[in-house]
């Protein structure tokens, strides 16, 4: 199987799974309290439905892009994950779990996202720091304003 067919099939599976989530799993397994049906604002189904639609759109977009793109000869070897990088990724995930309760969402996400970007992307230190802060602030703004879902505060023991 070529990489192009692999991308197209992955996009198709993403779209199918997203549609399955939207039309069967979310309505079947996430209940909405009767009072929430008549009040404005998000319900327990809101965020999973948004993620499912994002999966559908990204799957369809991936298929369209891969179908329209001309095949290119692969000149560089495929990226291989070595043991050191895999252990660092596992360490970052463990750090996120350990710091989350003490430092809260914002601080922990900035630190761990910076670690992932610095480790896995070609960005330098300053661009990785800027992207990690910007993405975290966008997520916080999205949750607090649009979804109206409070995230764990930073340093709850200190009241911050």
Defining key terms:
single chain, 2 domains, 160 residues, 69% helix
What's the SSE blueprint?
Blueprint: H1 3-29, H2 46-68, H3 83-120, H4 125-146
Helix pairs in contact: 1-2, 3-4
Architecture overview:
- This protein has 160 residues and is mainly alpha-helical.
- It has two domains: 3-68, no CATH class; 83-146, no CATH class.
- Helix content is 69%, strand content 0%.
- The protein is flat.
- 10% of the residues are buried.
Summarize the structure.
This protein is mostly helical.
* Helix/strand class: mainly alpha
Taking all residues together, what is the mean pLDDT?
80
The stretches of 5 or more residues where confidence is low (pLDDT under 50) are: none
* Overall form: flat
Percent strand:
under 5%
Q: Encode the helix/strand succession as letters.
A: HHHH
Radius of gyration: 20 Å
- Considering DSSP H and I runs of 4 or more, what fraction of the residues is helical? 55-70%
Straight-line distance between termini: 52 Å
Main sheet: strands, sense, barrel: none
Number of separate domains:
2
* Strand count: 0
Number of helices: 4
């Amino acid at each position: 199987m070529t990489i192009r067919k692999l991308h197209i099939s992955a996009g198709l599976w993403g779209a199918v799974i997203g549609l399955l989530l939207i039309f069967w799993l979310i309505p079947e397994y996430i209940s909405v309290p009767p009072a929430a049906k008549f009040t404005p604002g998000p319900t327990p189904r809101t965020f999973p439905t948004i993620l499912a639609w994002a999966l559908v759109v990204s799957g369809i977009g991936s298929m369209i892009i891969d179908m329209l793109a001309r095949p290119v000869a692969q000149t560089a070897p495929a990226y291989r994950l070595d043991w050191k990088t895999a252990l660092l990724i596992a360490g970052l995930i463990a750090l996120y779990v350990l710091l989350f309760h003490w430092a809260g969402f914002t601080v922990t996400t900035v630190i761990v996202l910076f670690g992932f970007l610095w480790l896995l992307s070609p960005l330098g230190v300053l661009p990785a720091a800027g992207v990690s802060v910007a993405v975290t602030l966008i997520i916080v703004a999205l949750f607090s304003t649009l979804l109206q879902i409070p995230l764990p505060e930073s340093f709850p023991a200190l009241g911050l």
